[in-house]
């Protein structure tokens, strides 16, 4: 259940952060207006709250592992929303980032190891 919760929160965080950044990009680069910018700021604020809901209490660990999700999510957003065509290098980099993210967030920690040993 914890892995599912972590995964759902990472996906929601990515949608909020990438969507918010995209809205601000649209406001500035594509002259879409201030409404896009305001919505983008709101989405970025929501991202911060979503990230704080992760079960791991270590800010650095959560944000470092989220980085891999952000990389893959950004490429996915580009493909779905902007028609971006990733290269082999984009796919490879994204895969490496996701493996790194999984290594960080799913690796046993001292607290988890102590709990498992006591059981």
TrEMBL record:
Task: State a single Pfam family of this protein.
Answer: UPF0060
Asked whether the UniProt record includes Chaperone among its keywords, one would answer: no
**Record-linked HAMAP family:** UPF0060
- Which PANTHER family does the UniProt entry name for this protein? UPF0060 MEMBRANE PROTEIN YNFA
Tell me the compartments it is located in. Answer: Cell membrane
Topology with respect to the bilayer:
Multi-pass membrane protein
Query: What family is this?
Result: Belongs to the UPF0060 family.
Q: Which GO terms describe its cellular component?
A: plasma membrane
Instruction: Provide this UniProt record's keywords sorted from A to Z.
Output: Cell membrane, Membrane, Transmembrane, Transmembrane helix
Specify where it is mainly localized: membrane
Report what the protein is called.
Answer: Uncharacterized protein
Q: Which InterPro entries match?
A: EmrE-like, UPF0060
The residue ranges crossing the membrane are 6-25, 34-53, 59-81, 88-111
Q: Would I find Cell membrane among this entry's keywords?
A: yes
